[in-house]
Specification:
Length: 260
């Protein structure tokens, strides 16, 4: 697909995906940016991004790189999808190649994997979390409808109450992590948080459940656009939630706990 050019005030250096220290812990490194002159940047198409052959594939981005702009700008989305998500996908497939996990469903991997295996934990989580993240965003602002809307009113009192709780948890989250809307083992909706690339499907979850919505609070998701103004990113993200897709995930999650 034809590529196009955008003008952007590029930073001298911005993100390394992650580093591995002596304790086998993976952390994201964010370098202090130095401004440079305006440069031309070539932005490709998400359809051109291909993971290496493996058990799991990247989800197809259901919108263009500029589809969420100006809330999430083109370069941020392109970097997030074609660099970070791609790297998590490739590394995850490498970690499970020729192991018992190679042909195992993803949720079963989360149930059985050793959480002390930092590389598998980080990349399996990074793959799953980003797949959900990109699937539940949309260019057009929506509000919950149908089954999900009724459940939100029942569990939280109103959509406004859910919004305040979700945004509040995201604002308070310290460091890299995620905030989730999950369906717990009883079929109830709950808001919960995880650190790094963990998620509520893992054995260490404070509130175990099936995620139907998640916001990425790693700095790679927003730093180019918002720097330290994380609250502005949270607001921007919330305006682009695909509540129709979240409703689909909600119904699927209810089937898992046999509530429908």
């Amino acid at each position: 697909m034809k590529k196009y050019i955008v003008h952007f005030s590029i930073l001298a250096s911005f993100f390394l995906l992650f580093s591995c220290n002596d304790n086998n812990k993976l952390t994201e490194v964010v370098e202090v940016p130095l401004p440079t002159k305006e440069e031309k940047i070539t932005i490709g198409s998400p359809n051109d991004v291909k993971a290496d052959p493996g058990s799991f594939e990247m989800t197809k981005l259901p919108y263009s790189y500029d589809g969420l702009a100006p809330a999430i700008r083109t370069l941020t989305l392109e970097t997030h999808y074609s660099k970070h998500y791609l790297t998590y996908t490739n590394n995850f497939n490498k970690e499970i190649a020729n192991t018992e996990f190679e042909n195992m469903p993803l949720e079963d991997i989360f149930k059985k994997m050793d959480l002390s295996n930092a590389k598998l934990r980080q990349n399996a989580g990074g793959y799953y979390n980003h797949t959900l993240y990109f699937n539940i965003l949309t260019p057009k602002e929506q509000t919950p409808k149908d089954t999900l809307a009724s459940a939100i009113d029942k569990e939280f009192g109103s959509f406004a109450n859910l919004t305040n709780q979700f945004k509040g948890q995201a604002t308070k989250q310290f460091g890299s992590g995620w905030v989730w809307l999950v369906v717990d083992r009883y079929g109830k909706l709950q808001v919960t948080t995880t650190e790094n690339q963990d998620n509520p499907l893992m054995k260490n979850a404070l509130i175990p459940g099936t995620p139907i919505l998640g916001i990425d609070l790693w700095e790679h998701a927003y730093y180019l656009d918002y720097q330290n103004r994380k609250g502005s990113y949270i607001d921007a993200f919330y305006e682009h939630i695909n509540w129709e897709k979240v409703n689909e995930y909600y119904i699927e999650a209810l089937k898992k706990v046999k509530k429908v």
